Amino acid sequence: MSETTKTTGSCLCGDVTYEITGDPVFTAHCCCTDCQKASGADHITLAFYKDIQVNISGVLAEYSVIADSGNTNTRIFCPRCGGRLFGRNSVREGTIGVQVGSMDNPQNIKPAVVVYTKDKREWDVLSDEVTAFEASPPPGG
Ligand SMILES: [Zn+2]
Ligand SMILES: [Zn+2]
Q1: Domain 6-132 belongs to what architecture?
Q2: Residue 55 contacts by C-beta under 8 Å, 6 or more apart in sequence?
Q3: pLDDT band at residue 141, thresholds of 50, 70 and 90?
Q4: From the CA of 87, how far away is ligand 2's center (Å)?
């Protein structure tokens, strides 16, 4: 754990930028069908931080859906280029998920788990080193 780790990132067009201080509290790949549709990719990778760790500048747009868990899942993106940057879940108040693909320097991010493997495409092969969950991770995960 290093309090001085600085991670920066942006959307594709650069209208939205952010800077993160410190390490993530949790990291995960998500293979759910909603993430597939929202991203256009076979899975996404998220690093979760406390809100106070993340400093965002730029105008954002968002789109919320009720996940199969019953929680509200909000996906946050740049309204100009459509680049998806963040996610919020009503079950994780005060926490923001940052899409690792939007980071400039994600070298020290190590996904801990993969969730929603029930929706994962067969050809989307992920490392055996991550713990796999069929759906949501267990409470507290
Ligand atoms: Zn943009
Ligand atoms: Zn998902």
Answers
A1: Beta Complex (2.170)
A2: 18, 19, 20, 21
A3: very low
A4: 10
